[in-house]
Every structure is written in C-alpha cells, then in structure tokens.
Design a protein that fits this description.
Spore Coat Polysaccharide Biosynthesis Protein SpsA, Chain A; about 230 residues; alpha/beta; 8-stranded mixed sheet; two-stranded antiparallel sheet; globular
Length: about 230
Amino acid sequence: MSFEAIVLAGGLGTRLRQTVPGLPKVLAPVAGRPFIEHVLAELARGGCARAVLAVGYLHDMVMERLGKRFDGIEIDYSIEDAPLGTGGAMRLASGMVRRQPFFVLNGDTWLDLDHGAMLAKHRSANALLTIAVRRVPDVSRFGAVSVEGERVVRMDEKGTDGPGLINAGVYLMHSKVLDDPRLAGAFSFERDLLARRLSDLRPVAYEAMGRFIDIGVAEDYRAAQTLLAAP
C-alpha cells in the first residue's frame, strides 16, 4: 500500500517566531532535527511514496534542507507567490498530485497514524473526504468535532472546553472536494469550505489513537522536544 500526500509547509509561524527566529516553522528544531523531518518520517512509515510540500515563507530554506527525496519519499514543491491560506494552498498543490485519493496534513503537527487503516475506511465508505479525529482532555484550543455513526456532523469554533474529539488536521480526500467555484485565490479550507459544505460532503471520521503534537505555540514546542526524542 502506497499513497501520495500534500504537506502544508508555508505558514508564517508568527506565534513561534520569537522562539525560533529566522526559520520557517516547519524547520524548527525538535529533538535534534527539523520538525518537518519527523512529519515526513511518519509518512514514510505509513507507506507514502511521494509528497508535495506546499511552501511559501522562506521556502528556499525548506527546499535546500529536504531536496528531492527524503527517507524514500519523492519530494516535489508547490510554491506560493503570496499566502493562499490552507484552502488555496491545498488547491494549488493538488494540481501536482498524481494519485487519488491523497492525504493532506499540516507541516507543524505530528500524528501517530495508521495510514493504511484510514485509507481502508475511506474506501469502504466510498467517501470523498475522511478526517482524522483525536480524543483529547480539553478541546478548547482546537474546537470540538461531533460525530454521528461514522460521519462528522458538526465542527465547533474554539471556545468550547472539556474532553472530546478534535480535528487532528489530517485529511484523506479526492481533489473534487476542492472544486468550489465560489472560492478563488486565498481561502481557509476549514472555515470557508469545510464548515459551509459539511452537510453535503458528509466526511467520514477516522479516530486516531496515537500521539498528537502541535508545535504552533511555544509551550507545546518545548514539550515536543521530549515527546519526539528517539527512544
């Protein structure tokens, strides 16, 4: 089993910039190597054959570090001339994908995921979109996801607190999901497309049980140094 993936690696990393000045967020050092290398290594373990990195801010540094191949994965780059948001970046990069369906994930989060199991569930449900969800003790930072049966039926904005499911930021999709003529240029996949089309896309939920790490804020970035340290 092999697959392709888009990795969103063009973020400005404003919340982390004081901690790792002069670097794109995905190159922030974690446990002795750039964080993006942990992300790609997890994809390689899952069976990824090719990844398209959606890059923008300081993209030359990312390309110089990773080159055209990493850990057996063929690497290509989708370069944004201006920030496109998650949705615009996904749409631009999807034009370079050769296989359907494909995974999409954030370059600043790491999820211990069984890619084969998620792909099998996606195919058995004949889904256009499957979302990896993760159970956490407090959803307030991320926003809660509500699931009925195997389908995601609601995605709340940040503000709700307490235990529950969150969107872990890993999607398995067909490029048709991004074919929305009402959206052009820069847009948020989560807010402008997914939230508005939840009822007709009827995305499947795949609950991931492994570790989840988001280095978007300094506190979690520091915690990642231990969590991703080699055993």
